[in-house]
Amino acid sequence: MSKLSRRTFVKSLGAASLAPATLLATPPLLAAAGATPPTVGTDEKPLYLFFNTDEAAFIEAACERLIPHDDVGPGALDAGVPNYLDKQLGGSWGAGERLYRSGPWHQGTPSQGYQLPFTPAELFHAALRAIGAEFDGKTAFKDLAAEQQDAYLKSLEAGGKDLGGVPSAAFFQMLLQMTVEGYFSDPVYGGNKNMVAWKMIGFPGAYANYYDLVDKHGIKLDREPMSIGSDRHGIVHPDPNIPASL
């Protein structure tokens, strides 16, 4: 990796992309699935319905290396990202509800998008089985030193590995994408627990409107963000005593 740290990258990505952040998990996830959103704000350990014990151990460790906890902000585990993956992969999006499944299956160009015959659920299960077999009889991924975990994830990202028919680069890319989604999405989708990622970057969340702010500029909003699952609604009233941000 370059000198740009993962944390700096994640923060810049969140700040740049959170205009549609509450929609990040929507297409093609729970909104398409018609599923009931999970409970928001619980501190209990997730009850995994999609991942088995070994798969969950790998996912938790891998997500935490992609977005690690540090002195800048919370990590993927703090934000409940693995719970987000479990809910999405275990729902109708994971089952490929809106995927074309009739082939033919050929190597596509980068501009053609996803070209594999697997549903997201099939892709993860196949790849995780292969990864589990690779570590069978060895030190588990979750027990490796952080540097060793990073090296293994980079080997997946670089491609060239066959993970039960799944190209390792395709698996890594989906894992990374879903990790970022789960970190910054609205908590109703299972991640961003207690809105920790939004608080880190100062994203206000899903307030009903900002009518009082239409003609105001440079006002710092110093308040808790709001989830679309919240029962609070209303207009933002900025504190006039708070100085304008630079």
Description:
Strand 1 and strand 2 form a beta hairpin. The protein is globular. The chain has helices at about 5-15, 30-35, 55-65, 80-90, 120-135, 145-160, 170-185, 195-200; strands spanning about 160-165, 165. The chain is an all-alpha fold and about 250 residues long. It folds into two domains: about 5-205, no CATH class; about 205-245, no CATH class.
How many DSSP E strands? 2
Backbone CA Rg? 19 Å
Shape by Cα distribution: globular
Task: Give the overall pLDDT as a whole number.
Answer: 81
Task: Give the uncertain stretches in residue-range form.
Answer: 17-42, 233-246
Number of domains: 2
**Biggest β-sheet description:** 2 strands, antiparallel
Helix content: 25-40%
Order of helices and strands: HHHHHHEEHH
Features:
246 residues, mainly alpha, two-stranded antiparallel ribbon, 8 helices, globular, disordered C terminus
Please specify the SSE layout and strand pairing.
Layout: H1 6-17, H2 30-33, H3 53-66, H4 81-89, H5 120-134, H6 146-158, E1 162-163, E2 166-167, H7 168-184, H8 196-201
Antiparallel strand pairs: 1-2
Brief sketch in words of this structure:
This protein has 246 residues and is an all-alpha fold.
